[in-house]
Write a structure and sequence with these properties.
This protein is α/β, with parallel strands linked by helices. The protein contains eleven helices and five strands, in the order ααβααβααβααβαβαα. It has a single domain, classed as Rossmann fold. Helices cover about 50% and strands about 10% of the residues. Helix 9 links the parallel strand 4 and strand 5.
């Protein structure tokens, strides 16, 4: 019966084209248990987020072994908040946060998104006040691919949410990084087709464009 329910859930997720996996909880638990074995130190630079972060080979691309990837596919703001102590107990030097697109897909209002994000950032500052925190804007999407139906028509929400992230960065003493100019088609505002193959996640070229923008912050 459990297997049947699991199959039904997977079918429903596929029909809705949600930007998450049908085994999200299992994957989250596996990654958290792995990260528990991987220490973080005061010279480390943390990339924290969801599948977009999870898929990046940042240490190799930048040739910086002190970069630690703490992305988990399908993660949301509450999931990141639950694992902050694990990420921050070693007081890393820098933290680059990219989170929120899955929360947007869950049909939260801009006010709800901002409340959750601000709570998350405040907890980061509380747990590790000496860590320099970089808040990256939620990346643009490209719904021309027709893949993620829960993100259809969410361009305005993403833009307004990013304005809130900018505000939160200013109020909490963090650095705000707007990723949109590096990734969006200037004529449409959509994620450039050359940087994605599904309208949400990045190809190698997309990761390079992202890192080209933030490298000065990483290496500063």
């Amino acid at each position: 019966m459990v297997k049947l329910y699991s199959t039904i859930i997977c079918i429903l997720l596929a029909a809705l084209s949600l930007p998450m996996s049908c085994n999200a909880d299992s994957y989250y638990d596996r990654k958290v248990s792995l990260f528990e074995l991987l220490p973080v130190g005061p010279d480390d630079i943390i990339f924290l987020g969801n599948s977009i972060t999870d898929g990046g080979e940042f240490a190799e691309m930048l040739q910086m072994p002190n970069i630690k990837n703490r992305g988990i596919s399908s993660d949301v703001m509450s999931g990141v908040e639950k694992r902050l102590e694990q990420v921050l107990r070693g007081t890393p030097k820098k933290l680059f946060l990219l989170i929120g697109i899955n929360d947007v897909a869950h049909k939260l209002t801009v006010a709800q998104l901002a409340t959750r994000y601000e709570r998350l950032v405040k907890k980061i500052r509380q747990l590790s006040p000496d860590t320099k925190v970089y808040l990256q804007s939620v990346m643009p999407v490209n719904n021309d691919f027709g893949r993620y139906k829960t993100l259809f028509g969410k361009e305005k929400t993403i833009k307004q949410f990013n304005e809130e992230i900018r505000r939160i960065a200013q109020s909490e003493g963090c650095v705000y990084i707007d990723l949109t100019p590096a990734l969006a088609d200037p004529s449409t505002g959509k994620l450039m087709r050359k940087y994605t193959n599904d309208g949400l996640h990045l190809t190698g070229a997309g990761y390079k464009a992202w890192l080209d923008l933030i490298t000065p912050y990483v290496k500063d």
